[in-house]
Amino acid sequence: MAEASLAALPAEFRTKLGEVVLRVEEFATAEQLAAVDLTDRWQLSGLYEGEALPDRSIWASGRMPAQIWLFRQPLIAEWRETGVRMDDLVRHVVVHEAGHHFGFSDDDMHRLEDDAE
Is 27 left (phi over 0), alpha (psi -120 to 50) or beta? Predict the structure, then answer.
């Protein structure tokens, strides 16, 4: 589902996500939770780790590729709790995390989502 979500993005976005690694784990690590000021592993369903495109320098080299993480157990819990289709939920999280790759903040993305409704 996550790969299909990335594949469904417009070409101009897909090409700039080519180096991003998509990872799926059961839960976020304690370090990942701390990075976003959370302590409850059930509260984090996705995470972007890496340097956003607007912040990159052409002079920097040797950095690890950016990663989009999906956390399976929190996604399943949200699916059960909300009744939102799992593929829609996964797509939402993937697009949200991909937005961080392009330099959007959480507030930016919430504003865009609200404007689209």
Answer: beta
Contacts of 34 (CB under 8 A, 6+ apart): none
49 phi and psi angles, rounded to 5 deg: -125, 125
Taking the C-alpha atoms of residue 50 and residue 80, their distance in angstroms, rounded to an integer, is: 30
- Taking every pair of Cα atoms in the chain, the longest distance, rounded to a whole number of angstroms, is 47
94, burial (CB in 10 Å: exposed 0-12, middle 13-18, buried 19+): buried
Q: Residue with structure tokens 């592993």? A: 41
31-41, pLDDT tens digit by residue? 999 999 999 99
Q: pLDDT at position 76, please?
A: 98
Q: Which residues of 55-93 are buried (b: 16+ CB within 10 A; e: fewer)?
A: eeeeeeeeeeebebbbbeebbeebbeeeeeeeeebbbbb
Q: 94: which 2 tokens?
A: 């993937």
- The residue among 45, 53, 101 whose CA lies nearest residue 71 is 45
pTM reported for the whole predicted model: 0.86
